[in-house]
Every structure is written in C-alpha cells, then in structure tokens.
Design a protein that fits this description.
With about 350 residues, this protein is an alpha/beta fold. Helices cover about 45% and strands about 20% of the residues. The chain contains eleven helices and ten strands. It is globular and about 65 Å long. Bound molecules: 5'-O-[(R)-(carboxyoxy)(hydroxy)phosphoryl]adenosine and zinc ion. The site of zinc ion has 5 residues, from helix 4.
Length: about 350
C-alpha cells in the first residue's frame, strides 16, 4: 500500500452505483474533475414509473468496467498512477451498492491502492467543494435528495452534526410521488420545476408542516396527502385543474419550509454560509429563493452546478479526498450498507 503524504498529487478514482446512475470519476487534489462519466438508467426505469432495484443492479454490472476503462482513457491516466479508489457504500439500494463496492474492492486490491468507502449523503455535500474549494467552515448544509432531507452543521471537514431531518418523506420523494399522480413521469422533480414556471404559486393553499416551534425537522406527508386528495376529488367530480398551478403551489409549499428552516438553522448556529446539496438542489425556485434571501441577510449561499446536484461520482471523489488527507482508509471487508447513517 502506498503511504499518503499531504503534498503528493492525489488522483482519486471514484465510483457511484447507489441508485440508478452508474458513474465513474477521476478527481485530482480534491476539486479538479478530470473526468465524470454518468451513465443514467432513467430511460430504462421510466417505463415502470420508478427505479426497479433488480434492474438497476444488472445495469450497473453491464456498465461499470467499461466506464472505468473509459474514464482512465479520457483522463489520460494509467491505473498505477491512482492514489486511491473511492466508492459509495451507502445509503442506497443494496444490490446496486454491492456492484460498485465489489468492483472497487477488487480494483483497489489488484492495484495495491487504498480503498475508501464514502457515505452518499456526504458526497452530495462535497459536490459544493468541487467548484468552491475555499468555502470557509463552519457552515450549515441543506441536503435534499430523492431519499434524504437533512440539515447539517459542519464544523470542520469530517466533523458534523445532523440538526434536522425529515420525519417521513424526503423532499425529492414527495416531488416524485406527486408528479407520478399527476402523470408527469419519472423522475418528477425536474418536470414539476419546469411546469411550475407557468403556474401560480398562490392558486392552492397547501399545508406547511412547521412542527414544534424550535424544531428543525421536516414532514412532507401532509402536503403530499393534500395534493393527492385534491387530484382525487377533482377527478371524481370530473373537474379539470390547471396542472401548472397545482405544481407551482405544491412546489412552493415544499420550498417555503425548506428555505425557512435552512435560515433558522443558520440563525441558530451563527454560521455565515449555507450550502445546498442533493438532487432537489437542482430546483430553480429553491436556488432562487435561497440565493435572494441569503443576499438580503448577508449569508453566502452555495450550490453545485445542476449536473453535480444529482447522483455522480465526482462528488464521491471530492468527499473521499478529505477522508484521504486525514489518513482514513477502509478495509477490504467494506460492505454495502443500505441504511448507512451520517453519524
Ligand atoms: O440526489 P439524487 O440524484 O438521488 C438521491 O440520492 O436520492 O436525487 C434525485 C431526486 C429525485 O427525487 C428528483 O425528482 C429530484 O432529485 N430532482 C429535483 C430536480 N431535479 C432532480 N427535484 C426538484 N426540482 C428539480 N429540478
Ligand atoms: Zn443522491
């Protein structure tokens, strides 16, 4: 095994297979993306209206070796030059995770390089450091994806605290379920974002779950049920509702709570910067609202480029870099952990 010194050039090969994207990236020194290949399975799963785990695993197996070969070729790097092999080992679909984890273990072992297991949620957060490596800590991070909704206080690299989380659905999950009920297809977030632009955010007054006054937790099952009830009763009465208005009012109900609680977390912790991460971070209204309120309040708001918000291996490589320079390393007994926690 090579010894990692802080001054060496670090080339991390990163692998992400936790859900429906097979992705391989090579990251230099934590923030230079030499290559970030993403093979999306969305068109395969669209016909089923959501991700079919068994199909996802098979698709990852078909793509993974080819993508690694292609990534090395595109970056012009020989496998021996790599400093480490990083892989998402949770949370996610167990069969899908196992494809990446098994490949990464074999590859790291064959090369005699360090192996690093990375938490997928941390990966989403570190997508911010790819474009903004000089973000000053401490920060608050709002992580909003298909499976997760968390508020984190990040004191320094590797030292964080979950200060809020969803008690039921994740924000992206709510977007996907409502889009499905409206017949907008999978994944629903981008479609709701798009059609909301032509809708009225005040057309329907959907509920916001603020929970206890001091709570930084979230709950999206109430707003989801309210929209589903509206859709069902309209269809029973033969009414046609303007779908742009439903989408815009629903999106606003979710974003209102996300933005309010994110800034409440900023106030509570006294940080000067707020990071946004996860697939829902690609939402244009959420970015705009956080950005403009941040500007009014003198809080710096960072969010990754849209392609780095949804699942990709570059973010895994960025998170791995900060683990690597602290001397962390996983054993070859690294396993896929479908419900891997942040703490
Ligand atoms: O982070 P991600 O790729 O996968 C998970 O780790 O879960 O997030 C996918 C989620 C899906 O729920 C998708 O609908 C949502 O992110 N999403 C969006 C947008 N783009 C993706 N939600 C709202 N607006 C968007 N523009
Ligand atoms: Zn994700």
């Amino acid at each position: 095994m090579s010894i990692i010194g802080k001054k060496d050039v670090q080339l991390v090969l990163a692998i992400e297979t936790s859900c429906d994207e097979t992705s391989v990236a090579i990251i230099k020194d934590g923030n230079q993306v030499l290559v970030n290949l993403i093979s999306s399975q969305i068109s395969t799963h669209q016909q089923f209206g959501g991700v079919v785990p068994e199909v996802a695993s098979r698709k990852h197996i078909e793509s993974i070796s080819l993508l690694v070969e292609e990534a090395l070729k595109e970056a012009g790097i020989q496998p021996e030059e790599l400093s480490a092999v990083a892989v998402t080992n949770g949370p996610g679909l167990v069969g899908a995770l196992l494809v990446g984890v098994s490949f990464a273990k074999a590859y790291a072992f064959a090369l005699g390089k360090p192996l690093l297991g990375v938490n997928h949620i941390l990966g989403h957060i570190y997508a911010n450091f790819l474009e903004h490596p000089n973000i000053e800590l401490p920060v608050v991070c709002l992580v909003v994806s298909g499976g997760h909704t968390h508020l984190l206080y990040i004191k320094e690299h590797g030292e964080y605290q979950v200060i809020g989380r969803t008690r039921d659905d994740a924000a992206g999950e709510a977007f996907d379920k409502i889009a499905r009920a409206m017949g907008l297809g999978y994944p629903g977030g981008p479609m709701i974002d798009k059609i909301s632009k032509a809708g009225d955010i005040k057309a329907f007054d959907f509920p916001r779950a603020w929970l206890e006054p001091s709570s930084l937790d979230f709950s999206f099952s109430g707003v989801k049920s309210a929209v589903l009830n509206l859709l069902n009763s309209a269809s029973m009465k033969g009414q046609t509702l303007k779908e742009e208005d439903i989408a815009a009012s629903f999106q606003e109900a979710i974003i209102d709570v996300l933005v309010t609680k994110a800034f409440a977390a900023v106030d509570e912790t006294g940080v000067k910067s707020l990071l946004l991460a996860g697939g829902v971070a690609a939402n244009s209204r959420l970015r705009q609202q956080l950005g403009s309120i941040g500007e009014q309040r003198g809080i710096k708001v960072y969010y990754p480029a849209p392609v780095l918000c949804t699942d990709n291996a570059a973010m895994i490589g960025a998170a791995a870099y900060y683990q690597l320079i602290k001397g962390a390393q996983s054993g070859l007994d690294l396993n896929a952990v479908p419900n891997l926690k942040l703490e």
